[in-house]
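Researcher: Next entry: Methylglyoxal synthase (Paraglaciecola hydrolytica).
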Amino acid sequence: MQKTIALVAHDHKKPDLIKWALEHKSELSKHKLVATGTTGGLLMKALALDIHRYKSGPLGGDQQIGALIAENKLDCLIFFWDPLNPAPHDPDVKALLRLCSVWNVPVACNMSTADMVITSPLFFDGSYQRQLPDL
Ligand SMILES: O=C(CO)COP(=O)(O)O
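Model: Predicted structure:
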């Protein structure tokens, strides 16, 4: 079952995300991919896959992906955020991660969790029904 997956990484984590995405290219290619601007540009080049790019994170891209979550249009977020360097848009990052909790969206913030999410039959065979907040 096709899902919509968002791919986002802070600058120091972009190499990790590209490496991870290349390893999982065949699975990722089955789904609709969206990303923040710079991350999306690098991934499109590396993967040669179509990726819908939102604005760069500091310019509102995290919030655009948050809006997808609030509209229940996102199934999974892979977000390699940088725990060692503060970002000018940290409030946006926090808001995005918060919405993942509110909407019970699977979110992977590091490579090992992302490995487990992308290989989980629970998630990708279409049988898993994610519980949604009361609307
Ligand atoms: O800053 C980001 C996420 O908070 C990512 O934005 P870019 O993909 O544009 O670098």
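Model: Note for the record: Residues 90-102 form the longest helix (13 residues).
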